[in-house]
Amino acid sequence: MVLLLDKAKLGVDRLIKNSLDYCDLYIIEKGGKVFLLYLFERSYYYYFKIMPETIGKWEDCDNALYNAFGLFGFVNKNNEELESKIKEKMEALMKIGFP
Questions:
Q1: Phi and psi dihedrals of 41, rounded to 5?
Q2: For residue 21, how far is the Cα from the chain centroid?
Q3: Per-residue H/E/C for the chain
Q4: Could you report the per-residue pLDDT of 71-94, keeping only the tens digit for each?
């Protein structure tokens, strides 16, 4: 996957990209909190799961899908709202609060 998210559009302090087996893992830091964003690409859409950092393996796309914590998002590839959807889910997680 070639897509690179825009740090400014996300409104985050740090953004690190890692390419995994069939998804990209973005490690996001905002206001001292760390989030893991797993981004998957399909023919016509992207889907993602964003969650608080967890203890365990981060380098496996399947682990992210089966982890009980986090929120999913889906966006059409022709749409420019990927960053806004990610930002919306990240803010929802921050409101819920996590350790």
A1: -115, 135
A2: 16
A3: CCCCCCHHHHCCCEEEEEECCCCEEEEEEECCEEEEEEEEECCCEEEEEEEECCCCCCCCHHHHHHCCCCEEEEEECCCCCHHHHHHHHHHHHHHHCCC
A4: 999 999 876 789 999 999 999 999
**Cα–Cα distance between 90 and 40 in angstroms, integer?**
17
For residues 68 and 33, give the distance between their C-alpha atoms in angstroms, rounded to a whole number.
Answer: 19
> In the numeric block, which tokens belong to residue 14?
């740090």
Tokens describing residue 25: 């893992």
Q: φ, ψ for residue 55 (rounded to 5)?
A: -80, 135
Global pTM reads 0.90
Indicate if the alpha-carbon torsion angle 79, 63, 60, 17 is positive or negative: positive
Q: Could you give phi then psi for residue 90, rounded to 5 degrees?
A: -65, -40
Q: Which two tokens stand for residue 29?
A: 């830091």
